[in-house]
Amino acid sequence: MHEFQNLHSTNKTRIQEFVRGHFYGHLDFSLDKTLFFFIAGRYEFSNKGADIFLESLSRLNYLLRVHRNDMTVVVFFIMPAKTNNFNVESLKGQAVRKQLWDTAHAVKEKFGKKLYESLLTGQIPDMNTILDRDDLTIMKRAIYATQRHSLPPVTTHNMLDDSADPILFNVRRIGLFNARNDRVKIIFHPEFLSSTSPLLPMDYEDFVRGCNLGVFPSYYEPWGYTPGKL
């Protein structure tokens, strides 16, 4: 059991890193109070039960908001569709996340060195002066880069037929646009997962281990067929 718990923790951390980038500028929910759900398989909107899954997510979002629950549910739709590439906003989100990570580590290294040297002299450092003006400027620039005037995208790719896509059409109908007050967030990843992806570099098996729940409400297949064949 410890092995599976460790694998879940490791892969969940990787998913959290992706979510941090995808929702940059709107990351006003706690990842410690976030559950990751997913549905995956061939893109058969009704046969695979994506239709009733979206309806249930709409009702779940309503109930969480009405009861002022601080839990957030991030739901992944992993179903291949016709696209021409990753969308710019999704790639930018991961770039912003990496830039913030690099900035935090650079400042941490300088902070740690000054703290170490101060302690060696037997003094408690003045926290108001341990960060110099350059450090503050770098951090302010990093924070400015996280400003976002649009909502986080629902899909990670540029869809070839956005207006007629069943998932996106129904997302618009039920109004799950990843707004700040939505407790259910949607991420449609219209291709199968791969560890070589520049956006979400995870194989399906690792991704599944990192999630909290997989939902497969297929109309015509016995339980286990869909998740077992992916």
Automatic annotation (TrEMBL):
Kindly tell me the pathway this chain contributes to. Answer: Glycan biosynthesis; glycogen biosynthesis
Q: List each coiled-coil range.
A: none
Give the matching InterPro entries.
Answer: Glycogen_synth (IPR008631)
Annotated keywords: Allosteric enzyme, Glycogen biosynthesis, Glycosyltransferase, Transferase
Q: Which reaction does it catalyse?
A: [(1->4)-alpha-D-glucosyl](n) + UDP-alpha-D-glucose = [(1->4)-alpha-D-glucosyl](n+1) + UDP + H(+)
Q: What is its EC number?
A: 2.4.1.11
The protein's enzyme class:
transferase
Q: Which PANTHER family match?
A: GLYCOGEN [STARCH] SYNTHASE, LIVER, GLYCOGEN SYNTHASE
Summarizing the function annotation, the protein's role is:
Glycogen synthase participates in the glycogen biosynthetic process along with glycogenin and glycogen branching enzyme. Extends the primer composed of a few glucose units formed by glycogenin by adding new glucose units to it. In this context, glycogen synthase transfers the glycosyl residue from UDP-Glc to the non-reducing end of alpha-1,4-glucan.
The entry assigns this protein to a family as follows: Belongs to the glycosyltransferase 3 family.
Q: What is this protein called?
A: Glycogen [starch] synthase
> Gene that codes for this?
GYS2_2
